[in-house]
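Hi V.,

Quick status before I head out on leave. The structure for the redesign project is tokenized and pasted below; the design run finished overnight.
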């Protein structure tokens, strides 16, 4: 994102010691390095949160651009966003619904647009953030139910902080942005909350390893949907204390266990991955529903989670006291054929029985494929709090959102770096 914005004329200065980012905007993104270029090429890597808003922002301006990324990026759909921009008269195309995206535009000529809400909330967020750049009023209509609604609330609140108000119809069925709405930098500084999705890994450790563990930077006043991960842990039996800017989690009281849960995860798609690992430590089956968006992320997360979770099964126990995977059974002594079972947009976890140490009986060592997905690496690192020896392949993928993850994890667990390509966690 920073590299792309630099090439588009935005001056960004990051001070890592002071944890600040000084940004000098220029009111309109443009080809700053070579204005006469036929097309400015912008490399997006595998960052969907970069390519989608930039596609909308650049389409609402003037110029020629090509936005592309790694192989996986070319497998992540962007057609609904491109089609919506085309409805507005923007000159933007993609190949068979996927990147690369080619933009040759003079901005929007229309003022009404329809977009789906059930594929990715980032499509709607992208249109909302770009709308104030238009020369006319813009009305955005949703033509399907909205998934991950808290992310839209987050978008609207950030836009308001920068001077833009959006008129929202009940149930978020349409959004109206007046042409005279203009972005203005907040006076002084704008404070960014701690990332609630990243906080989920440490809150989970508190729930499964005793705790208490306190995460600072996210609490009752947070505008992020993933703070509700703490609420779900409460429902599973964990002890959760809430502060305005912190959350503290510890395991259920002595003699009690976390309990399985059937939960709609449409509002917490990222933190739901952490919940899948927590489910291994619960009594009874856990089902995570409405997580179909996982398939469109850095990897097919639904398939990847099932594959890696089932590696934890003790192979010699399979078949003993076997129960069908779709049967709801709370008897800890029975062992399902598979730990994880994949549905179209859901995931069911049958936790292994407990050992004498109070932890699930799982394989003694496992190598986890991360599929170049930062959240896969961080989720499965939690398994190391048991007696399982965990090797995380490609741990550097965590640099995408949490470069210091393993350093922070080292404060409450022990892990040893074996070689550059793996982390071995014990």
């Amino acid at each position: 994102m920073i590299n792309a914005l630099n090439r588009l004329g935005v001056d960004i200065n990051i001070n890592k010691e002071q944890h600040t980012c000084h940004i000098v905007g220029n009111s309109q993104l443009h080809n700053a390095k070579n204005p006469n270029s036929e097309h400015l090429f912008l490399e997006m890597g595998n960052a969907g949160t970069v390519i989608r808003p930039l596609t909308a922002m650049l389409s609402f301006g003037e110029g020629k651009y090509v936005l592309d990324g790694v192989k996986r990026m070319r497998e992540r759909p962007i057609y609904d966003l491109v089609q919506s921009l085309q409805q507005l008269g923007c000159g933007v195309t993609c190949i068979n619904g996927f990147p690369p995206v080619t933009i040759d535009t003079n901005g929007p000529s229309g003022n009404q647009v329809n977009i789906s809400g059930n594929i990715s909330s980032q499509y709607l967020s992208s249109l909302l953030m770009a709308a104030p750049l238009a020369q006319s009023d813009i009305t955005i209509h949703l033509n399907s139910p909205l998934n991950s609604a808290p992310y839209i609330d987050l978008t609207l609140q950030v836009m308001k902080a920068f001077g833009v108000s959006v008129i929202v119809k009940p149930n978020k069925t349409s959004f109206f942005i007046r042409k005279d709405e203009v972005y203005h930098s907040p006076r002084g500084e704008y404070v960014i909350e701690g990332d609630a999705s990243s906080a989920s890994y440490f809150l989970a450790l508190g729930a499964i390893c005793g705790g208490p563990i306190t995460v600072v930077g996210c609490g009752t006043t947070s505008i992020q949907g993933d703070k509700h991960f703490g609420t779900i842990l409460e429902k599973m039996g964990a002890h959760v204390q809430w502060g305005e800017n912190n959350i503290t989690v510890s395991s259920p009281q002595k003699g009690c266990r976390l309990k399985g849960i059937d939960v709609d995860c449409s509002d917490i798609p990222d933190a739901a991955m952490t919940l899948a690992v927590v489910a291994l430590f619960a009594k009874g089956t856990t089902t995570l529903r409405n997580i179909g968006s996982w398939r469109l992320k850095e990897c097919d997360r639904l398939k990847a989670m099932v594959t890696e979770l089932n590696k934890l099964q003790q192979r010699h126990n399979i078949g003993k006291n076997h129960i069908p995977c779709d049967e709801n059974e709370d008897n800890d002594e029975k062992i399902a054929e598979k730990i994880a079972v994949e549905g179209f947009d859901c995931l069911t976890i049958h936790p292994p029985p407990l050992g004498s140490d109070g932890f699930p009986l799982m394989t003694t060592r496992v190598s986890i494929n991360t599929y170049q997905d930062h959240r896969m690496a961080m989720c499965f690192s939690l398994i190391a709090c048991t007696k399982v020896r965990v090797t995380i392949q490609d741990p550097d993928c965590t640099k995408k959102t949490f470069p210091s993850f393993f350093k922070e994890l080292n404060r409450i667990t022990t892990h040893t770096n074996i070689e550059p390509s793996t982390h071995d966690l014990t």
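Above is the designed sequence. The longest helix spans residues 196-209.

G. will cover questions while I'm gone.

Best,
W.
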